[in-house]
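[INFO] parsing input record for Putative histone acetyltransferase
[DEBUG] input buffer:
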Amino acid sequence: MKRKRAFTMASSWSSTVKPSRVPEEESVRCWESKTASSNRTRPQIQSRSRRGSKTRNINDVLKDERSKISGINRILGTPIPVRNNLTWRLLKSHMRIESFYCTKLHSALNAIHECFEPSKDPYTNRDIAEDIVFDLESDSELNLRGFYTVVLERRDDDDGHQEMIGAATVRINKGVAEVPLVATRPQFRRLGMCRILMNELENRLMEFGIER
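[DEBUG] output buffer:
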């Protein structure tokens, strides 16, 4: 009697409870949300026109970089009076450099050696400051090419002789100026000479669109 009653209760529960079915609208909505999420995570293929615009932008950047360098090269070797008998000058070593400017580069190198202990390239055992100032080719793994040398000189009113006060090295790359070496000779320190040299350098760089 008990077994028959349990059987009837089980059969009546199975007949009343039916498996739940997801409505058709909810299944469609769920499928659309999954498709949208997969599209968001899928990498988008760049169109040809967008790639072309990026190429044009890169060309514009390179053209702007060349114009900045050409502007800087226009003042190479030009003496620029900055204060009373002080002269600021931008130099760069190359194959056609005159002996007059070569002498000034040697004076700038001597000023740097007065302020810094000589440092040797670990790969070539050459003087790093000399390679920077004279833009010398070497087999070193260090990138020391493309530097300019800035000098600040004092002119003697009696004989017109110019005495080296200080020097700095600068390199321009992608609109950014790098100044690794700045040297002021000991007898001219604490007179604001380094500030005069660097202020004129910053003004000239900003004039040609280099602001960092």
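[INFO] The beta strands are 80-83, 86-91, 148-155, 162-173, 176-184.
[INFO] shutting down worker
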